[in-house]
Specification:
The protein has three helices and nine strands. The protein is of the alpha+beta class and 257 residues long. The longest helix has 40 residues.
Length: 257
């Protein structure tokens, strides 16, 4: 397998992981977001009496006074009588509220008039919805980033077809092939795909902090990636390439991009 094919697996795996994480958020909390939105727009807020409480154990409600923060604390409340019958609804609460609220106490609840079993604590609705909205917005941003990354990976690994208009950024004009300065064999022609630039330091200069703004001219780009013409000796691991942005008069820019 070539280095190019090997190199594509890491970015693809990373993009797939980002997509899976991003999709988990709406899959896990999408129904809560829609319920909160319905309760905020069309819900009725009234006092409801705590009828039962407990923690969920194997999908069964078990009453206990000794709970852990990791437990799923549940209230079942009795809504005010409507249409001659009393409705019950169930929702999750914090451990603190669970421990401080005895049975029979009235708490503010918001429910849907057409579906009274769908309800939540009134004072936690807006805060919960704000958190869910930010989470879904972040999830959407991650998906868009992942899709953009997929397109970038696709374009990066797509082979130019016959007659492609994609030109090299630089060109080493030679009449004879280049021989490796170490072993003397003819070097292989190719190019270096750039993005954030090549950074050069003289032998007596400190490393400093390489950034996109300190890259050599013609090796840095925000959108289109420069392709620097060069030659490679795989045996000696030597690459000779040409960088710079050529102006119309044939000279090369000295300033940074």
């Amino acid at each position: 397998m070539s280095n190019i094919k090997k190199g594509i697996w890491f970015p693809l795996s990373l993009v797939i992981l980002i997509i899976l994480i991003a999709l988990w958020v709406p899959f896990q909390y999408g129904s809560d977001f829609l319920l909160n939105r319905a309760l905020l727009s069309a819900g009725i807020s009234e006092k409801a009496q705590i009828y039962k409480k407990g923690i969920l154990v194997n999908d069964k409600l078990v009453w206990t006074q000794q709970t852990k923060p990791s437990d799923e604390h549940i209230f079942i409340v009795k809504l005010p009588s409507r249409r001659g019958r009393e409705d019950l609804c169930q929702f999750g609460v914090t451990q603190r509220l669970y421990n401080n609220s005895p049975l029979g106490v009235n708490i503010p609840v918001t429910f849907l008039p057409e579906s009274p079993q769908k309800c939540k604590l009134s004072y936690s609705l807006r805060g919960s919805q704000a958190i869910l909205s930010k989470g879904l917005a972040l999830s959407t941003g991650m998906i868009l980033f992942a899709l953009g990354s997929l397109f970038f990976v696709y374009r990066s690994h797509k082979k130019p077809g016959p007659g492609s208009s994609s030109k090299l950024t630089t060109e080493i004009k030679l009449e004879v092939p280049i021989n490796c300065p170490e072993c003397g064999i003819i070097m292989t022609e190719g190019y270096l795909p750039m993005g954030f630039g090549i950074h050069w330091r003289n032998i007596n200069q400190p490393v400093a902090i390489p950034t996109m703004f300190s890259g050599l001219s013609g090796t840095v780009s925000w959108l289109k990636r420069p392709r620097l013409h060069g030659y490679h000796c795989e045996k000696c691991r030597i690459v000779i390439f040409k960088y710079g942005v050529e102006e119309k008069d044939g000279s090369f820019l000295k300033k940074l991009n």
